[in-house]
Amino acid sequence: MKALIAAALLATAAPVAAQQAPAPAPAPAPSPAPTKPRRLIVAISVDQFSADLFAQYRNHFTGGFARLLTGAVFPSGYQSHAATETCPGHSTILTGMRPAHTGIIANNWIDQRTGRVDKNVYCSEDEAVPGSDHNAYTVSDRHLKVATLGEMMKAARPATRVVSVAGKDRAAVMMGGHKVDELWWWDGKTFTTYAGRAEPAVVTRAKAATAALIARPQAALPLPAFCAGLSLPIAVGDQMLGTGRFERAAGDVKQFRYSPPFDAAVFALAAGLIQDMKLGQGAATDIIAIGASATDYIGHANGTQGSEMCIQMAQLDATLGSFFDRLDSWDVDYEVVLTADHGAHDMTERQQQRAMPMEAHVPVALKADAMSAAVGGALGIAGPVLVSAESKTGFDSDVYLARTLTPAQRPRVLAEAIKLYAADPRVEAVLTATQIAATPMPTTPPETWTLLERARASFDPERSGDLLVLLKPRVTSVVSPGKTYVETHGSPWDYDRRVPILFWRKGMAGFEQPLSVETVDIVPTLAATIGLPVKGLDGRCLDLDPGAGDTCAM
C-alpha cells in the first residue's frame, strides 16, 4: 500500500507532458450496454467541478477523464436547487433526493432552539456534544434525513460493503450515509474517522506516506502547454494570483490541501481500501464514494481561470488515470460515476477585466448583522432582530428572525427587512419561508425552474431561514477577498448549478446527451445497473444504453 500511495502521489507531480505521451485508448466499438451487474460501484465527486470547467478542459484530457468521456456523458447535469454549497450538493449525489428532503439546506444554518451558546449548526456535526461549536465539532451523520445508495444496497443485501473517503468530512458523510463500513476524511492534518473506530493497517500506512510527502518541500509543478495562455498575473487585494504552480515549503500542511497532491492522497487511500478489503470480490456488489476536494480549495484561493486551476485539471486527470489503471490491474469488475457538488464563478477582479464590468462584490450593508442594525434602528427595537450563519467575509442567503422578538414584532421586522433588502440594486429577490413552502416541488427540466422553484428544492421548514435573499447574477457573496478566499459559489444561477455527470463501465458503448439531467438521477440509474429496486426518490433512472436496450428495465 505504501508503494501504491507513493506512486499515486508522484504521478501528480510528474511532468504533465510525460503523462500525456501515451495515446488515449480507443473508444470501444458500439455494442449494447453490459447487463451483468458490476461488483463495485465507484462514485466520485470532484468538488467545484463545474460544467464550465469540464467544457473548457475536456479536449485536453488524456488520462482518467478521457476514459470517462468514452462512456455516457451528460455535460449539463444540474445540482438543481438554489443552495449550491458543498454539503447540500453532496447530499444529493448518492441519495437521489434534493436538499428539501435530505434536510441539508446549507453548509451551516441557524438553530435558535439548540441548547448551546453557538446557534450556528454545521451540516455534519452533532451539536449536542458538550463544549462543541460549529468550528470545533464532532463529525456526525445525524442531520442527513434520508438513506444513501450504500444503505439501500446493504438493506437489500447485507453482505454489501460501504466505504467513503474524502478530503472533507461533509463530503464523506453525505455520500457514505449512516451505515458505513469505513469512512475517512482529512481533518486538516491527517486522515481520520469517527471516534472509537479501529484504524486498519492500510490506513495507517496511507497516513504515514502522506505525512512523509508533506514533510518534503514541493517544487513548482510543470505548466502544460495548454495552460500557458492562462498564466497571467492579477492583483486581488494584496495578493498576486494567476501564475501559481503549487510550490510548497516542507511541512506546510495547510498548503498541501490547496494543491493537486491532496487529491492524489485521497485516491491512494481509496485504492488501498479497495485492495485491502477486496471490494468488488465479495458475495454482493460493494460501493465506494470518493470526494476529491482540492479543486474547490484551489478555486476558492485562486479562482478558476489562472494557471492554478489549469494545472489542477491536468493533474487530476492524471490521478484519475492512475487510479483506474490500478483497479484494472487488480481485475476489479467496476463501474464509475463522476460528478460534482456544485459549480463556481471566477473571481470578481478577473471577471471585470474580461468583458464583465458589471461583476461586483456584495456590500457589507447587506450582511445580516448590518441589516439587523438597520431594521432594528428603523423600528426602534433593541438588540439583534436578524441572524444568519454567514462568515465574517461572506454573505449568507438564509436570514432568520431573532427568537427574542415578540409575536407583534415579528411581522414588522419581516416587512422592514424585505423592504430594505429589496431596495438594494444587487438583490434579485427576497423570498419568504411562507412563499417557498407554498411552492410545489418542480417537475420540469431544471434550467426552466423559477427562482421560487429552485429555492423550494433546498427548503426545509425546520432548518431554512425566514427569508431567502438572492443576489443578482454576477454579484458574488464574497464581501472582501482575502487569502484562500477570492472566489465562491452558492448562488441559484446556472454557473453554480451546472455540473457534468459521467458514467463509465468497461465494454459499454458511449454516447453524449446534451439535454439537462439532475444529480438526483444518479442513484436510480446506478441502482438499475445492479438490479436494485428503488422507489420514492426525486430522481429518475437514466437509460445508459445508446440503442434499443434499456438499462432501466428490471
Structure explained in plain terms:
The chain has 554 residues and is α/β, with parallel strands linked by helices. The protein is built from 20 helices and 20 strands. It has helices spanning 2-13, 16-20, 51-57, 64-68, 86-93, 99-102, 149-156, 169-176, 201-215, 253-257, 260-277, 294-302, 307-329, 348-353, 368-379, 409-423, 433-437, 451-456, 494-497, 522-529, and strands at residues 40-46, 72-78, 108-110, 120-122, 162-166, 182-186, 191-192, 234-236, 239-241, 286-292, 334-339, 360-361, 386-387, 398-401, 427-432, 467-471, 475-476, 498-505, 511-512, 517-518. The strands form 5 sheets. Strands 1, 2, 5, 6, 7, 10, 11, 18, 19 and 20 form a 10-stranded mixed beta sheet that branches. It has a 4-stranded antiparallel beta sheet with strand order 13-14-16-15. A two-stranded antiparallel sheet has the order 3-4. The protein is globular and about 70 Å long.
Counting DSSP H or I runs of 4 or more residues, the number of helices is 20
Averaged pLDDT: 94
Distance linking N and C termini = 39 Å
Portion of residues in beta strands equals: 15-25%
